[in-house]
Design a protein that fits this description.
- The protein is 35% helix and 21% strand.
- It folds into 2 domains: 230 residues, 4-Layer Sandwich (Glutamine Phosphoribosylpyrophosphate, subunit 1, domain 1), CATH 3.60.20.10; 136 residues, HUPs (Rossmann fold, 3-Layer(aba) Sandwich), CATH 3.40.50.
- The protein has 16 helices and 17 strands.
């Protein structure tokens, strides 16, 4: 739902790091800075480096919360734990109070420090206490290990490369590729899945040897190179044992949505909302207006071809909410001219045209606010795409498909197909 950043990258901050496994080795500080420079677009406000022998942590910061004292890397009281963090912890104020009662001393107001103290108190189990979106890495100087985690739904990215010599990680693939010892190699095994679905669902990436930490997982890397990845959460898909009425479900969903929007509005900087005029973004914009008690900034993108533009719908909603509304119109020339830059930003070929539109509306928004909320993800969670209804129908027909001869079914569904195919295959000679 929440989006951060300037320009194409609607993200908040970026992290990077390296562990050298050779006992006599050291992290090259210049190489680590080069990795951080590769993601300056993620964090234009600040940068920080932690170097200690065989370990290095780096980050680029987009300042959203605790602008004055939120500089990273941040440590615990005695400097035995160091963290770099990308994201936001929405329940950090509550956690802060609990941890202070347990004796932990804070030096900042940032949610980053709360993660450090939570790890200090609960160890790897700290992730069970965090509510938000996050990718972070903690270097534990006493146990000589790196502990990293990614949020439950994978909102924040975490890529890594483990070799015999070192462990590298970053918020983007290009961060790892910026290291002088890494040579990009195509992972050919990834092509079939990407061409079929438009994305890679597992750990693999387009680059050989570079993987992504899966959502709801943690990773521990020992100084000797031992690596352990474990899941800490998975979506519960069990059927509700006590079915409720549709009205009850609607009330519960609305309550959760209002709560989520309220939490996402935690910010020390101006924020707005991307508005398409559809149910998703319109609901978020309406709840933001209700929560703030004042008009919000709304941002929309459209096209000169009126039949494909959603701007009329966005204007209707903006007028209803009395929002401070901004628009940008994207031409076909601008669309295609932006592709090389967007491919660079996404580290892989573009599968969805909406990525281009999102880039231009983000450029518009950055002129007025630093944070926006969006309706992203609602179609996936609420089954809003037509393909989901088709899938359910196909599932209901599975037993018929199983007993049907494929060739016979093809002939039935496409009469004349085989005659056409034979004719097309004949040699002109």
């Amino acid at each position: 739902m929440r989006t951060f950043g300037r320009g194409a990258q609607q993200t908040m901050c970026g992290i990077a790091g390296e562990i050298v496994f050779d006992r006599d080795g050291v992290v090259d500080g210049e190489a680590l800075r080069r990795m951080c420079d590769a993601m300056v677009h993620r964090g234009p406000d600040d940068e920080g480096i932690f170097l200690r022998g065989r370990v290095g942590l780096g980050m680029r910061r987009l300042s959203i919360v605790d602008l004055a004292t939120g500089h990273q890397p941040i440590s615990n009281e005695d400097g035995t734990l160091w963290i770099v963090f990308n994201g936001e912890i929405y329940n950090h104020a509550l956690l802060r109070h609990r941890l202070q009662l347990l004796g932990h001393r804070y030096t900042t107001q940032s949610d980053t420090e709360t993660i450090v103290h939570a790890y200090e108190e609960y160890g790897p189990g700290c992730v069970q206490h965090l509510r938000g979106m996050f990718a972070f890495a903690i270097w534990d100087t006493r146990k000589r290990k790196l502990f990293a985690a990614r949020d439950r739904f994978g909102i924040k990215p975490f890529y890594y490369r483990a070799s015999e010599e070192s462990f590298l990680f970053g918020s983007e693939i290009k961060v790892i590729l910026a290291h002088p010892e890494v040579r990009p190699q195509l992972n050919r095994d990834s092509l079939p899945e990407y061409l079929a679905f438009g994305y890679l669902s597992g750990e693999e990436t387009f680059y050989d040897g570079i993987r992504k930490l899966m959502p709801g997982h943690t990773i521990e890397v020992q100084e000797n190179g031992a690596l352990r990845i474990e899941p800490y959460w998975d979506l519960n898909v069990d059927t509700d044992p006590q079915a409720q009425s549709l009205t009850d479900y609607v009330h519960q969903y609305r309550g959760l949505l209002e709560q989520s929007v309220g939490r996402h509005m935690m910010s020390d900087v101006p924020l707005g909302v991307f508005l398409s005029g559809g149910l998703d973004s319109s609901a978020v914009a309406a709840l933001m207006t209700k929560h703030r008690g004042a008009p919000v900034d709304t941002f929309s993108v459209g096209y000169p071809e009126q039949g494909y533009s959603e701007l009329p719908y966005a204007r209707t909603v903006a007028k209803h909410l009395n929002s401070i509304h901004y628009e940008v119109t994207l031409t076909s020339r601008e669309f295609f001219d932006a592709l090389p830059k967007l491919i660079w930003h996404e580290d892989e070929p573009l599968a969805w045209p909406s990525s281009v539109s999102l880039y231009f509306v983000a450029q518009l928004a950055r002129q007025h606010v630093k944070v926006v909320l969006t309706g992203e993800g609602s179609d996936e969670t609420l089954g809003g795409y037509s393909r989901y209804s088709f899938t359910m129908k196909n599932v209901a027909m599975d037993h018929l498909y199983y007993y049907t001869d494929a060739v016979g079914l093809s002939r039935t569904l496409a009469p004349g197909y085989w005659r056409l195919s034979v004719a097309e295959c004949r040699s002109p000679a």
